[in-house]
Structure formats: C-alpha cells, structure tokens
From TrEMBL:
<dbReference type="InterPro" id="IPR006139">
    <property type="entry name" value="D-isomer_2_OHA_DH_cat_dom"/>
</dbReference>
<protein>
    <recommendedName>
        <fullName>D-3-phosphoglycerate dehydrogenase</fullName>
    </recommendedName>
</protein>
<keyword id="KW-0597">Phosphoprotein</keyword>
<keyword id="KW-0007">Acetylation</keyword>
<comment type="similarity">
    <text>Belongs to the D-isomer specific 2-hydroxyacid dehydrogenase family.</text>
</comment>
<dbReference type="InterPro" id="IPR029753">
    <property type="entry name" value="D-isomer_DH_CS"/>
</dbReference>
<dbReference type="Pfam" id="PF02826">
    <property type="entry name" value="2-Hacid_dh_C"/>
</dbReference>
<dbReference type="GO" id="GO:0004617">
    <property type="term" value="F:phosphoglycerate dehydrogenase activity"/>
</dbReference>
<feature type="domain" description="D-isomer specific 2-hydroxyacid dehydrogenase catalytic">
    <location>
        <begin position="8"/>
        <end position="310"/>
    </location>
</feature>
<dbReference type="InterPro" id="IPR036291">
    <property type="entry name" value="NAD(P)-bd_dom_sf"/>
</dbReference>
<comment type="subunit">
    <text>Homotetramer.</text>
</comment>
<dbReference type="Pfam" id="PF00389">
    <property type="entry name" value="2-Hacid_dh"/>
</dbReference>
<feature type="domain" description="D-isomer specific 2-hydroxyacid dehydrogenase NAD-binding">
    <location>
        <begin position="112"/>
        <end position="285"/>
    </location>
</feature>
<dbReference type="GO" id="GO:0051287">
    <property type="term" value="F:NAD binding"/>
</dbReference>
<keyword id="KW-0560">Oxidoreductase</keyword>
<dbReference type="InterPro" id="IPR006140">
    <property type="entry name" value="D-isomer_DH_NAD-bd"/>
</dbReference>
<dbReference type="InterPro" id="IPR029752">
    <property type="entry name" value="D-isomer_DH_CS1"/>
</dbReference>
Amino acid sequence: MSSPINKVLIADDIEQECVDILKQNGIEVTVKTKQTKDQLLESLPQHDAVIVRSATKITAELLAASAGKLKLVGRAGTGVDNIDVPAASANKILVMNTPQANSRSAAELTCTLILALSRHVPQAAASMKAGKWARKDFMGEEVYGRTLAVLGLGRIGTEVAVRLQAFGMRVIGYDPIVTKEQAEAKNIELLPLEQIWPQADYITVHVPLIKQTENLINKDTLAKCKKGVRIVNVARGGIVNEQDLVDSLNAGHAKGAAFDVFEPEPPTFREFIDHPLVIATPHLGASTIDAQLRVASEIADNIVQYNKGTVLGVLNARDVLN
Ligand SMILES: O=C(O)[C@H](O)COP(=O)(O)O
C-alpha cells in the first residue's frame, strides 16, 4: 500500500459527517466547492485525495497535472462518468465510489415519477396554483396491470421493479449480465430488447452512461414502442435522445416522460423541459438526507480504511495497485 492520505479536498456539497469522520481520524480537510478548472489545476496537486459528487468534472487534464501527488478520487455517490477513470488508472490514482449508499433514494424517486406521470400530478398541482379547478384536464390511468420495462437490473432497477410490483405492475426487464433465473427470483421477465419495446407501457433506464448505452432510446427504438409509452430517466443524461423523444411526444406516439438527469446539466434543451408532457427534476435522485448521510460517511470511512491498508469501494484497484 502506498503512503497514507493526510490531506483531503472536498470539492462538491457533501454532508458535514464526511468532514467529521476524516478529521476524527487525523486527516486535514479543505472544503472548497464550485472551483473552476484553473482553481482545480492548482488545488488538486496540493491534496492526497479529492472527494466529489457529480458536479465537479475530474478530467484527464486535471489527473495528469496531479500525477505523483493526488492518490485518490472519492465519489460520494454512484456514477463515475464525471471522472476519467482510465486517465486516473494511467496516473496511478485510485477511484472510489459508494454504489450502495444512494440506490434506495434513486429507486424511490423513480417510483415517484412513474406514479406522478400516471396521474399528471405536477401538471395538476401547477394548474391549481394558477387558480384553476381543471378536473377534466387530468384524467389519469392506473399503473395496476400495466407493463413496466426496466432496462438495467442492478441495485436501482431491481428496487424499482420490486416496489412497483406492489402496485400490481407486470415487470419485464433487460440486462446483458443478469440470468433468467436471477430475474425470475425478483418476478421480472427477462427479455431481449426487441421484445421489450412493443410490450412496455413505461420504460425506465437504470444503466450507466457508457458507449453501449448512449442514445439507447432514440427515434428507431421509440418507433418500435407501443403508442402511449412513457419514458423515465433517473440514470444519466444521454441514455435517451431528448430530441427524438420530443418528436415522439409531438407526434402523439409517446405519452409522457419524466427525467431527473440531462446532458448537459443544467439542461439547455428547453423544448424538452418546457414540454407539457414532460416532468423534469434537477438531478434529485440521491438528494435525500438519508442517502447524503450514507454517501458522506461511507466515502470518509473508505478513506480511513485505505489508510489502515484495506481497499474498499475502489473501481480501478487492479490497474493502480498492481
Ligand atoms: O450517481 C449518483 O450517485 C447520482 O446520480 C447522484 O449524483 P449526485 O451525488 O451528484 O447527487
């Protein structure tokens, strides 16, 4: 094991719990959020580790400039698409995340959005605030008996499936690394994508943003979907093509969408956000006090354990430590 982590930079908003645990273990902590690239170029090499959420982008340029000084990038959360992991490995910098800590919160938000879509809750609430009493404008549909497709049957996807089964939804799913038996154990019918598209009333994506998942839902796949399909993305912007989805909504094919994530963030494609059939939230999947306390303490604990010689939650340990 290489030299210990003595100085940590916290570069995004993280609960105080993280600072407290690190300090209690003799680690010096600097909290400086919303740094520009130039500020990060200067501050990263002055620390042994940096802790981020999704706001700060840890690019190849920053990692190369910090090589030999920065030892670890800690992600207080799940997705590491804001961290150039191959560049971190190439510069012998470990990348750690806390993949278990916020999955329940992300799953709960997904279920909230699916139910909100089925009953037009945000649109109806906005209409009330505008002084209207428009009961006829918001006829909904039960989710009971309808088919939910979960693309990506990891922790979050599975938790969504189990919760919405309690509402009587039939759940079908796709995941290239899950077996039929594993899916069946959760009452999920595992199907190839080609069989998913025409059956789903709701499609929710729970995959990381990688080459194979970028643009996964696009004009071709939307055309194969059932008329009236609703699309939910609480995973990452870029998995669903927003322009193609707007076209489908305008054509009366897709019936609604609920998105918590965008490319870029904050989103610039206003036609999508402003669309009356779209519910948009500002990347709130992990924004619960419960999840934030968990990610904050877990990432701090992992760094403390690292100093004791135990490697926990490290994504690129094989590349860096060997
Ligand atoms: O990947 C994650 O952990 C979630 O998208 C939450 O991201 P955040 O930590 O920026 O809220």
